[in-house]
Design goal:
Length: 298
């Protein structure tokens, strides 16, 4: 019986916590950089290899992929689906959750409020009031990003044009939203889910040096108790995506609105555990051992 933890960086807090919890629980969890894997397909079937050597039969996989490892990570997750190996987040859920705009579209279909958003295809769209019905200042987000990478603010249309030109030159898809200011925001919050269970919530306070609310960028976290409506909306989105271990981010405005920002299928939980105690890694491993991980078809 062997379990696999896939992540590109062994020094990440989440990776270290999973390995620590596995040792304490005596779970045979092996850390592997997914970019050291290869997939072989022959008459004998599919084989997953690590550094050229076939891996033993796997009992389950914790698959955590950032943008750089996503393309191959999807293939590995697809292999798991075909081979009948349970994974924390099935292949089909990665297609849903890794694209920010796809998530917003699904949220709107589920009647979950989202920010007004524009995806301009051409430079001229930025100067078309019918296309860009969003007041400045702006926040620009690439479709696939993590830890705040690919999130840029632009104070006015001229700055927005510069950012857009750079991203268009790189053939990067991006979306534009209004950047809410401190006097408009009540709270920036995150709910952490494992299956249908909400493990808890945190409120993020960005540092004065960086507007992005990521823990590793200096943001401080405090406990947050979500209302029944917010928790229900987040659970609906998680279940619709088919993602099993995920974070759902909301922006609470002082006018009473709660806007869905994104769904994260590879959430860090250092800030969460700093508020709620160290139990997330153990819960995920228990979930995997109990056979509750996904076997979505590829």
């Amino acid at each position: 019986m062997t379990y696999l933890l896939l992540s590109k960086d062994a020094t990440l807090y989440s990776v270290r916590r999973f390995m620590q919890a596995a040792r304490a629980m005596r779970v045979p969890l092996q850390y592997v950089n997914p970019l050291e894997l290869s997939i072989s397909q022959g008459r004998g079937g599919f084989t997953l290899l690590h550094k050229g050597r076939p891996l033993p039969r796997l009992s389950g996989v914790i698959n955590r992929f950032g943008p750089r490892g996503l393309a191959f990570g999807r293939l590995v997750s697809h292999f798991c689906a075909v081979a009948g190996i349970p994974v924390i987040n099935p292949f089909t859920s990665l297609i849903y959750s890794k694209n920010k705009f796809h998530t917003l579209c699904r949220a709107r279909a589920l009647s979950i409020p989202v920010p007004d958003t524009c995806i301009p295809a051409f430079a001229g769209d930025l100067h078309n009031p019918r296309a860009l019905q969003i007041p400045p200042p702006y926040v620009v987000k690439v479709m696939v990003g993590t830890q705040g990478i690919g999130v840029v603010k632009a104070g006015d249309l001229q700055a927005l044009q510069s950012v857009a030109d750079y991203l268009w030159a790189r053939a990067e898809l991006f979306m534009i939203q209004h950047l809410y200011q401190a006097d408009e925001i009540q709270a920036d919050v995150r709910l952490l889910f494992l299956g249908p269970q909400c493990l808890g919530g945190v409120q993020k306070q960005p540092s004065t040096q960086d507007f992005r609310g990521n823990f590793h960028r200096g943001s401080t976290f405090s406990r947050f108790m979500p209302g029944a409506q917010m928790e229900k909306q987040a659970r609906r989105l998680v279940e619709d995506a088919g993602v099993l271990f995920a974070a759902v981010d909301f922006l609470l405005l002082k006018n009473g609105e709660a806007l869905l920002l994104e769904l994260n299928d590879s959430p860090g939980f250092e800030g969460f555990e700093s508020c709620h105690g160290r139990f997330v890694a153990e819960k995920v491993l228990e979930f995997l051992l109990a056979g509750k991980a996904g076997l979505a078809p590829g």
